[in-house]
Automatic annotation (TrEMBL):
Residues 168-303 form the N-acetyltransferase domain. Gene3D superfamilies: 3.40.630.30. It holds the Pfam family Acetyltransf_1. It comes from Fimbriiglobus ruber. It comes from the Bacteria. One of its GO terms (molecular function) is acyltransferase activity, transferring groups other than amino-acyl groups. This is N-acetyltransferase domain-containing protein.
Protein backbone atom coordinates (compact mmCIF):
# COMPACT_ATOMS: atom_id res chain seq x y z
CA UNK A 1 0.00 0.00 0.00
CA UNK A 2 1.46 3.36 -0.95
CA UNK A 3 0.39 6.76 -2.29
CA UNK A 4 -0.27 6.75 -6.02
CA UNK A 5 2.45 8.10 -8.28
CA UNK A 6 1.30 11.07 -10.42
CA UNK A 7 1.19 8.90 -13.55
CA UNK A 8 -1.14 6.54 -11.68
CA UNK A 9 -3.77 9.13 -10.67
CA UNK A 10 -6.16 8.25 -13.55
CA UNK A 11 -5.87 4.49 -12.90
CA UNK A 12 -6.22 5.01 -9.14
CA UNK A 13 -9.36 7.11 -9.63
CA UNK A 14 -10.79 4.50 -11.99
CA UNK A 15 -10.18 1.89 -9.26
CA UNK A 16 -11.96 4.11 -6.71
CA UNK A 17 -15.07 4.25 -8.86
CA UNK A 18 -14.85 0.82 -10.50
CA UNK A 19 -18.08 -0.27 -8.78
CA UNK A 20 -20.16 2.41 -10.58
CA UNK A 21 -21.93 2.05 -13.94
CA UNK A 22 -19.66 3.24 -16.77
CA UNK A 23 -21.44 6.54 -17.39
CA UNK A 24 -21.26 7.56 -13.71
CA UNK A 25 -17.74 6.23 -13.39
CA UNK A 26 -16.36 8.36 -16.21
CA UNK A 27 -17.92 11.51 -14.75
CA UNK A 28 -16.66 10.75 -11.22
CA UNK A 29 -13.14 9.95 -12.44
CA UNK A 30 -13.01 13.18 -14.46
CA UNK A 31 -14.23 15.18 -11.47
CA UNK A 32 -11.74 13.56 -9.07
CA UNK A 33 -8.88 14.28 -11.48
CA UNK A 34 -10.03 17.89 -11.80
CA UNK A 35 -10.12 18.21 -8.00
CA UNK A 36 -6.59 16.81 -7.77
CA UNK A 37 -5.47 19.28 -10.44
CA UNK A 38 -6.99 22.29 -8.65
CA UNK A 39 -5.70 21.21 -5.24
CA UNK A 40 -9.03 20.34 -3.63
CA UNK A 41 -8.00 16.68 -3.32
CA UNK A 42 -4.59 16.02 -1.77
CA UNK A 43 -3.18 13.19 -3.92
CA UNK A 44 -0.81 12.04 -1.16
CA UNK A 45 -3.95 10.56 0.41
CA UNK A 46 -4.73 8.52 -2.73
CA UNK A 47 -3.52 5.08 -1.59
CA UNK A 48 -3.11 2.23 -4.04
CA UNK A 49 -2.57 -1.51 -3.82
CA UNK A 50 -0.38 -3.18 -6.46
CA UNK A 51 -0.48 -6.82 -7.47
CA UNK A 52 3.17 -7.05 -6.42
CA UNK A 53 5.32 -4.52 -4.55
CA UNK A 54 6.66 -1.98 -7.05
CA UNK A 55 4.53 -3.38 -9.90
CA UNK A 56 2.51 -1.18 -12.24
CA UNK A 57 -0.82 -3.02 -12.09
CA UNK A 58 -3.20 -1.51 -9.53
CA UNK A 59 -5.57 -3.89 -7.77
CA UNK A 60 -7.25 -1.41 -5.44
CA UNK A 61 -7.42 2.15 -4.20
CA UNK A 62 -8.82 4.32 -1.48
CA UNK A 63 -8.69 7.99 -0.54
CA UNK A 64 -7.95 9.63 2.80
CA UNK A 65 -8.28 13.39 3.15
CA UNK A 66 -7.22 15.29 6.23
CA UNK A 67 -9.43 18.27 6.99
CA UNK A 68 -8.90 21.21 9.34
CA UNK A 69 -9.64 20.69 13.03
CA UNK A 70 -8.28 17.11 13.40
CA UNK A 71 -11.00 15.78 11.09
CA UNK A 72 -10.65 13.54 8.06
CA UNK A 73 -12.73 12.06 5.32
CA UNK A 74 -12.21 8.51 4.07
CA UNK A 75 -13.50 6.85 0.90
CA UNK A 76 -14.38 3.19 1.12
CA UNK A 77 -11.55 0.87 -0.03
CA UNK A 78 -12.16 -0.65 -3.46
CA UNK A 79 -10.35 -3.65 -4.89
CA UNK A 80 -10.75 -5.50 -8.16
CA UNK A 81 -12.95 -8.56 -7.84
CA UNK A 82 -11.17 -11.87 -7.41
CA UNK A 83 -9.97 -14.18 -4.66
CA UNK A 84 -7.86 -11.45 -3.03
CA UNK A 85 -10.48 -8.70 -3.12
CA UNK A 86 -11.30 -8.75 0.58
CA UNK A 87 -7.68 -9.05 1.67
CA UNK A 88 -6.75 -6.05 -0.50
CA UNK A 89 -9.66 -3.97 0.83
CA UNK A 90 -8.71 -4.83 4.40
CA UNK A 91 -5.07 -3.92 3.77
CA UNK A 92 -6.13 -0.59 2.23
CA UNK A 93 -8.35 0.15 5.23
CA UNK A 94 -5.47 -0.58 7.61
CA UNK A 95 -3.19 1.70 5.57
CA UNK A 96 -5.84 4.41 5.73
CA UNK A 97 -6.04 4.25 9.51
CA UNK A 98 -2.23 4.35 9.75
CA UNK A 99 -2.36 7.48 7.62
CA UNK A 100 -5.11 9.00 9.79
CA UNK A 101 -3.01 8.44 12.90
CA UNK A 102 0.22 9.68 11.29
CA UNK A 103 -1.56 12.85 10.16
CA UNK A 104 -2.95 13.55 13.64
CA UNK A 105 -6.62 12.98 12.77
CA UNK A 106 -8.79 12.40 15.84
CA UNK A 107 -11.93 11.50 13.95
CA UNK A 108 -12.95 10.58 10.43
CA UNK A 109 -16.12 9.88 8.54
CA UNK A 110 -16.99 7.85 5.51
CA UNK A 111 -20.16 7.93 3.40
CA UNK A 112 -21.52 5.07 1.37
CA UNK A 113 -24.71 3.82 -0.16
CA UNK A 114 -26.85 1.73 2.22
CA UNK A 115 -26.65 -1.25 -0.15
CA UNK A 116 -22.83 -1.28 0.07
CA UNK A 117 -22.58 -3.40 3.19
CA UNK A 118 -19.64 -5.43 1.89
CA UNK A 119 -17.12 -2.60 1.41
CA UNK A 120 -18.26 -1.20 4.78
CA UNK A 121 -16.99 -4.40 6.38
CA UNK A 122 -13.36 -3.40 5.70
CA UNK A 123 -13.94 -0.09 7.49
CA UNK A 124 -15.62 -1.79 10.45
CA UNK A 125 -12.62 -4.09 10.83
CA UNK A 126 -10.38 -1.07 11.44
CA UNK A 127 -12.71 0.60 13.95
CA UNK A 128 -15.27 2.56 11.90
CA UNK A 129 -18.80 2.31 13.29
CA UNK A 130 -22.16 2.97 11.66
CA UNK A 131 -23.43 6.34 12.92
CA UNK A 132 -26.61 7.21 11.04
CA UNK A 133 -28.08 7.81 7.60
CA UNK A 134 -27.76 11.19 6.00
CA UNK A 135 -30.55 12.51 3.75
CA UNK A 136 -29.49 14.83 0.89
CA UNK A 137 -32.03 17.41 -0.25
CA UNK A 138 -32.07 20.11 -2.91
CA UNK A 139 -34.35 22.94 -3.99
CA UNK A 140 -34.46 25.14 -7.09
CA UNK A 141 -34.15 28.85 -6.39
CA UNK A 142 -36.23 31.34 -8.33
CA UNK A 143 -36.04 35.16 -8.51
CA UNK A 144 -39.06 35.30 -6.15
CA UNK A 145 -36.93 33.65 -3.48
CA UNK A 146 -34.62 36.67 -3.35
CA UNK A 147 -36.75 38.49 -0.80
CA UNK A 148 -35.45 39.19 2.69
CA UNK A 149 -38.02 38.20 5.32
CA UNK A 150 -38.98 41.49 6.95
CA UNK A 151 -41.69 39.86 9.05
CA UNK A 152 -39.26 37.64 10.96
CA UNK A 153 -39.29 37.81 14.78
CA UNK A 154 -35.50 37.38 14.62
CA UNK A 155 -32.62 39.49 13.23
CA UNK A 156 -29.63 38.33 11.22
CA UNK A 157 -26.18 39.74 12.02
CA UNK A 158 -23.22 38.92 9.79
CA UNK A 159 -20.41 36.73 11.10
CA UNK A 160 -17.94 39.50 10.29
CA UNK A 161 -19.85 41.93 12.54
CA UNK A 162 -19.93 39.71 15.59
CA UNK A 163 -16.62 37.85 15.34
CA UNK A 164 -15.58 34.22 15.72
CA UNK A 165 -15.90 33.67 19.48
CA UNK A 166 -19.56 34.53 20.01
CA UNK A 167 -20.45 32.76 16.76
CA UNK A 168 -18.65 29.57 17.85
CA UNK A 169 -20.34 29.67 21.30
CA UNK A 170 -23.83 30.03 19.81
CA UNK A 171 -23.13 27.38 17.15
CA UNK A 172 -22.15 24.93 19.89
CA UNK A 173 -25.24 25.83 21.94
CA UNK A 174 -27.46 24.93 18.97
CA UNK A 175 -26.02 21.37 19.11
CA UNK A 176 -27.54 20.84 22.55
CA UNK A 177 -30.31 18.20 22.43
CA UNK A 178 -30.11 18.28 18.65
CA UNK A 179 -31.30 15.30 16.62
CA UNK A 180 -28.55 15.87 14.10
CA UNK A 181 -25.82 13.30 14.88
CA UNK A 182 -26.06 13.85 18.66
CA UNK A 183 -23.46 11.07 19.10
CA UNK A 184 -20.84 13.56 17.90
CA UNK A 185 -21.63 16.16 20.55
CA UNK A 186 -18.66 16.67 22.81
CA UNK A 187 -16.20 15.07 20.39
CA UNK A 188 -15.04 18.38 18.88
CA UNK A 189 -14.41 21.83 20.28
CA UNK A 190 -16.34 24.84 18.97
CA UNK A 191 -13.23 26.13 17.20
CA UNK A 192 -12.68 22.73 15.50
CA UNK A 193 -16.26 22.76 14.22
CA UNK A 194 -15.90 26.32 12.94
CA UNK A 195 -12.59 25.36 11.28
CA UNK A 196 -14.38 22.57 9.38
CA UNK A 197 -17.01 24.98 8.05
CA UNK A 198 -14.30 27.55 7.21
CA UNK A 199 -12.67 25.21 4.66
CA UNK A 200 -15.60 25.75 2.31
CA UNK A 201 -16.16 29.42 3.10
CA UNK A 202 -15.15 32.45 1.07
CA UNK A 203 -14.04 35.58 2.87
CA UNK A 204 -16.10 37.12 4.41
CA UNK A 205 -18.15 33.97 4.99
CA UNK A 206 -21.90 34.10 4.23
CA UNK A 207 -22.71 33.19 7.84
CA UNK A 208 -25.14 34.87 10.23
CA UNK A 209 -25.81 34.97 13.93
CA UNK A 210 -29.54 34.97 14.64
CA UNK A 211 -30.81 37.28 17.38
CA UNK A 212 -34.24 37.28 18.99
CA UNK A 213 -36.20 40.52 19.41
CA UNK A 214 -34.57 41.06 22.83
CA UNK A 215 -31.13 40.97 21.19
CA UNK A 216 -30.12 37.63 22.69
CA UNK A 217 -28.42 35.22 20.29
CA UNK A 218 -30.65 32.25 19.44
CA UNK A 219 -29.10 30.57 16.42
CA UNK A 220 -26.85 30.53 13.38
CA UNK A 221 -27.12 30.17 9.60
CA UNK A 222 -24.13 28.90 7.58
CA UNK A 223 -24.11 29.02 3.77
CA UNK A 224 -21.32 27.81 1.49
CA UNK A 225 -21.17 28.62 -2.23
CA UNK A 226 -19.79 25.93 -4.50
CA UNK A 227 -17.62 27.92 -6.88
CA UNK A 228 -18.79 28.18 -10.45
CA UNK A 229 -21.62 25.65 -10.12
CA UNK A 230 -24.66 27.81 -9.28
CA UNK A 231 -25.17 25.52 -6.30
CA UNK A 232 -24.94 26.78 -2.73
CA UNK A 233 -24.89 24.53 0.32
CA UNK A 234 -26.95 25.31 3.37
CA UNK A 235 -24.18 23.83 5.50
CA UNK A 236 -26.06 24.35 8.75
CA UNK A 237 -28.86 26.18 10.46
CA UNK A 238 -29.75 25.75 14.09
CA UNK A 239 -31.55 27.25 17.04
CA UNK A 240 -30.64 26.98 20.71
CA UNK A 241 -33.10 24.78 22.67
CA UNK A 242 -35.27 27.59 24.11
CA UNK A 243 -35.82 29.05 20.63
CA UNK A 244 -37.08 25.80 19.06
CA UNK A 245 -40.63 24.61 18.43
CA UNK A 246 -41.90 28.17 17.95
CA UNK A 247 -41.83 28.04 14.17
CA UNK A 248 -38.66 30.18 14.01
CA UNK A 249 -36.79 27.58 11.96
CA UNK A 250 -38.73 28.68 8.87
CA UNK A 251 -37.43 32.25 9.25
CA UNK A 252 -33.84 30.99 9.29
CA UNK A 253 -34.55 28.82 6.26
CA UNK A 254 -36.27 31.60 4.31
CA UNK A 255 -33.37 33.91 5.09
CA UNK A 256 -30.87 31.32 3.85
CA UNK A 257 -32.92 30.82 0.67
CA UNK A 258 -33.13 34.59 0.09
CA UNK A 259 -29.40 35.21 0.65
CA UNK A 260 -28.36 32.37 -1.66
CA UNK A 261 -30.81 33.53 -4.31
CA UNK A 262 -29.69 37.17 -4.02
CA UNK A 263 -26.11 35.99 -4.50
CA UNK A 264 -27.11 34.33 -7.80
CA UNK A 265 -27.42 30.70 -6.71
CA UNK A 266 -29.83 28.53 -8.68
CA UNK A 267 -29.92 25.54 -6.33
CA UNK A 268 -29.71 25.22 -2.58
CA UNK A 269 -28.38 21.87 -1.39
CA UNK A 270 -28.26 20.43 2.14
CA UNK A 271 -27.96 17.25 4.15
CA UNK A 272 -29.55 16.25 7.43
CA UNK A 273 -29.56 13.30 9.76
CA UNK A 274 -32.41 11.06 8.60
CA UNK A 275 -33.55 10.90 12.26
CA UNK A 276 -33.93 14.69 12.48
CA UNK A 277 -37.67 14.86 11.86
CA UNK A 278 -38.17 18.55 12.78
CA UNK A 279 -35.42 19.57 10.33
CA UNK A 280 -36.65 17.28 7.52
CA UNK A 281 -40.24 18.47 7.95
CA UNK A 282 -39.05 22.06 7.86
CA UNK A 283 -37.05 21.53 4.65
CA UNK A 284 -39.69 19.42 2.90
CA UNK A 285 -42.32 22.01 3.81
CA UNK A 286 -40.25 24.63 1.98
CA UNK A 287 -39.79 22.90 -1.35
CA UNK A 288 -36.71 20.74 -0.74
CA UNK A 289 -36.81 17.24 -2.20
CA UNK A 290 -34.66 14.33 -1.11
CA UNK A 291 -32.37 12.97 -3.86
CA UNK A 292 -30.02 10.69 -1.95
CA UNK A 293 -29.60 8.75 1.28
CA UNK A 294 -26.22 7.54 2.51
CA UNK A 295 -24.86 5.61 5.46
CA UNK A 296 -22.34 7.47 7.59
CA UNK A 297 -19.52 5.56 9.27
CA UNK A 298 -17.49 7.24 11.98
CA UNK A 299 -13.99 6.58 13.33
CA UNK A 300 -12.54 8.07 16.45
CA UNK A 301 -8.83 7.90 17.17
CA UNK A 302 -7.36 7.95 20.62
CA UNK A 303 -6.91 11.31 22.38
C1 LIG B 1 -34.40 21.89 13.09
C2 LIG B 1 -34.83 23.25 13.66
C3 LIG B 1 -34.07 24.37 12.96
C4 LIG B 1 -36.34 23.41 13.39
O1 LIG B 1 -36.71 24.68 13.81
P1 LIG B 1 -37.99 24.90 14.78
O2 LIG B 1 -38.30 26.32 14.77
O3 LIG B 1 -37.70 24.24 16.08
O4 LIG B 1 -39.06 24.07 13.99
P2 LIG B 1 -40.60 24.31 13.88
O5 LIG B 1 -41.15 24.61 15.23
O6 LIG B 1 -40.85 25.28 12.80
O7 LIG B 1 -41.01 22.83 13.40
C5 LIG B 1 -40.56 22.32 12.17
C6 LIG B 1 -41.39 21.12 11.80
O8 LIG B 1 -41.01 20.01 12.65
C7 LIG B 1 -42.16 19.56 13.37
N1 LIG B 1 -41.71 19.17 14.70
C8 LIG B 1 -41.37 19.96 15.71
N2 LIG B 1 -41.00 19.23 16.77
C9 LIG B 1 -41.12 17.93 16.39
C10 LIG B 1 -40.88 16.70 17.01
N3 LIG B 1 -40.48 16.65 18.28
N4 LIG B 1 -41.09 15.56 16.31
C11 LIG B 1 -41.51 15.60 15.05
N5 LIG B 1 -41.75 16.75 14.38
C12 LIG B 1 -41.55 17.89 15.06
C13 LIG B 1 -43.12 20.73 13.40
O9 LIG B 1 -44.46 20.32 13.57
C14 LIG B 1 -42.87 21.33 12.03
O10 LIG B 1 -43.51 20.59 11.03
P3 LIG B 1 -44.82 21.14 10.29
O11 LIG B 1 -44.42 22.48 9.73
O12 LIG B 1 -45.09 20.10 9.27
O13 LIG B 1 -45.84 21.26 11.40
C15 LIG B 1 -34.57 23.33 15.21
O14 LIG B 1 -35.31 22.32 15.84
C16 LIG B 1 -33.10 23.19 15.59
O15 LIG B 1 -32.36 24.16 15.52
N6 LIG B 1 -32.67 21.99 15.99
C17 LIG B 1 -31.28 21.77 16.43
C18 LIG B 1 -30.25 21.94 15.30
C19 LIG B 1 -30.65 21.17 14.06
O16 LIG B 1 -31.08 20.04 14.13
N7 LIG B 1 -30.44 21.82 12.89
C20 LIG B 1 -30.72 21.22 11.62
C21 LIG B 1 -29.45 20.68 11.06
S1 LIG B 1 -29.74 19.95 9.49
Amino acid sequence: MSPARPAEYPAACRALFAHLPAVDRIARVDRALALIANGEIDPTGLLVARDMPGADVLVGAMLVQHLPGSAASVWVPRAVSGPNQRAVEDALARAAVARLRAGGARYAQSFLKPEERLPARALELVGFRFLTQLAFLIRDLTPEDARPNFDAPVRFVTYSAIGPNLFADVLLATYEDSRDCPELNGTRSASEIVAEYRTEAPSPPPWWLVEAGDGGPVGVVILSPKDGTGVWDLSYLGLIPRARDRGWGKHLLRYAVARASLAGAVYLNLSADARNEPALRLYQGHGFRQYDLQDVFWWRGAG
